[in-house]
Design a protein that fits this description.
homohexamer; 2 domains; 6 helices
Amino acid sequence: MAIVTLIDEKSATGDVADVYGEIRAVLGLPFVPNMFKAIAHNPAYLRSSWERVKVVMAPGQIDRKTKEMIAIAVSAVNGCDYCVLAHTAGLKSMGTNDAEIVELMAIVDLFSGFNKLLEGLQIPADLGAQGKR
Amino acid sequence: MAIVTLIDEKSATGDVADVYGEIRAVLGLPFVPNMFKAIAHNPAYLRSSWERVKVVMAPGQIDRKTKEMIAIAVSAVNGCDYCVLAHTAGLKSMGTNDAEIVELMAIVDLFSGFNKLLEGLQIPADLGAQGKR
Amino acid sequence: MAIVTLIDEKSATGDVADVYGEIRAVLGLPFVPNMFKAIAHNPAYLRSSWERVKVVMAPGQIDRKTKEMIAIAVSAVNGCDYCVLAHTAGLKSMGTNDAEIVELMAIVDLFSGFNKLLEGLQIPADLGAQGKR
Amino acid sequence: MAIVTLIDEKSATGDVADVYGEIRAVLGLPFVPNMFKAIAHNPAYLRSSWERVKVVMAPGQIDRKTKEMIAIAVSAVNGCDYCVLAHTAGLKSMGTNDAEIVELMAIVDLFSGFNKLLEGLQIPADLGAQGKR
Amino acid sequence: MAIVTLIDEKSATGDVADVYGEIRAVLGLPFVPNMFKAIAHNPAYLRSSWERVKVVMAPGQIDRKTKEMIAIAVSAVNGCDYCVLAHTAGLKSMGTNDAEIVELMAIVDLFSGFNKLLEGLQIPADLGAQGKR
Amino acid sequence: MAIVTLIDEKSATGDVADVYGEIRAVLGLPFVPNMFKAIAHNPAYLRSSWERVKVVMAPGQIDRKTKEMIAIAVSAVNGCDYCVLAHTAGLKSMGTNDAEIVELMAIVDLFSGFNKLLEGLQIPADLGAQGKR
């Protein structure tokens, strides 16, 4: 159970109702995801969050399916069940199978392990891998 | 500075030297990354880690460039400078530009934020996004 | 279910019983929170943890309500449902409404996103924002 | 060093220049923070991120100083040096002293410890601390 | 519910069946843990992961019980219920009692708190505690 | 550089000086670690933190060396360089070599990877691994 009430679609008015309508249309969903129903207590934050979703998730140099996979990997590392479930559903609607999901999670596994190992051992960067100012 | 000595390429013998040679060949690098030089204190762990790298990072349903992007996203969330640098260098050698890297990190930003928000608000999964047993 | 048994209030004796009584009195609760019932297997650790709660959560330069909000933000980032629930209940007893909780979580969202973005991009500190020795 | 170039203020044109100008004006800073100079490679993402900063950080039910403290607490938990430094500088400009910063970090310490303890012990929520649907 | 199907023992063939048999024998379990049943969608990854488990968890300079305790501590910090439960069961089968588990978790609590405090305060390393190249 | 000044040993008076003296004596160090010098801005928090260190790190069912290893593992996962360095120095003073440190970090690697994998795949607990109320 959420720690705040969810503002359902029937109760939404004004800009919240507008954003709800846009979410359903753009995401092609028959419902507004619970996340948006929770943050609708702050309509300006709901609006600015939704605008940012559109900007970040729109296909650019990176295509939409790859963006969904990255979103799932990030959510797995942060331990967010809600996001993993929501975006796995999205990925499956694009034709992903269980083997591809395991292939994705194997990268999460390998690098999460190495990341912590490297932080623990405090290994300096290789000379061949420099940043730039 | 690392908390253990790094076993350099000249000092490596036996299976460690074999793995070092394979790493340079498979990754196409003129050097062995420091990470492997640190874990070489445990040759069996070095070997099994390297075998797993080959399995996980080989192109499968997911291509190599996408795997590198996922590796960078995971490493950013885990806060591992070493891995981000190493794999950004790899990505750049495949022709990635700064705008694409920012496009990638925007997904890390958006979802890391939402992940923590959702964990905080304890939002239940949408009915339309179910797992399976 | 917890991975250790909880030592209930009827079974508590000696210093554990004393700490339990103090917890109920100081927190104004009709029960001892489960967390304390679990760590009571180690009475000295229970005692020193409770002493530290009193020191850290007592109003000082920062008032009690702000401390509760910070505690909830920290717990959201660390993904601890128990703490978020317990301290949201505390915050609500001080008159907080759902909109204020969303306003709080929006900060958790914004900065958790930026934090990971910045770690990923490895942005150097601005010259205008220096620490001191 | 950042893994992407920073787009400096002299090179900025169009919407990037507009956002840069607004950032300096609204934050009252003589420079544009490096974070924004990095994400300016994606002008739409820069714009939507900045719009969201304004919405989330504007005083509402929670005042600006408390928002800065929450931002620092979140950034400490996520381990982001850049954000901690930037927002500590902001907090100090509002008159905060070292003792208040330590009082803030003590809450980060106490709850980060308890958060991990509770996740480890898998303690169920107290009956008195319920969420709502 | 998992986001992928679990490949049960009756359905396993070839190398997956071989690994399953080895897991049951080496771990002394009457069943194959669900984790392995999920990653079996990628037999090479299953095999390389299992080989690495054997290398890492075999007694060396660190004995098996201590390794289980470290595994639980790591899993508590990462917030993984599955691993904490699985390895607590393993630890209990070696004669651990609730007080010892709380003693272990107290270290998780103390250091997770200090870790975040130190990251927040950005305290430089003591001169007496240096790494080496 | 720390974001607060460090209160050095010459400037310490009253209870802070007492705790400083006790820290040097109990830890057998010729200096007070910087962490304590930073939190000394809040003497009651310094005192209660130090009391808790003594309780948690004293040998009990778990011996001191094992406690140091667990502390390092926790600090590696949380990404705290300060704590890893400080406690690795402690461990080395007990005779640990580089191979044992790598053996320890291999567990951090293995389980941090599996932890994130399992959170991502949302694998349910095995029936044979139950908690208790």
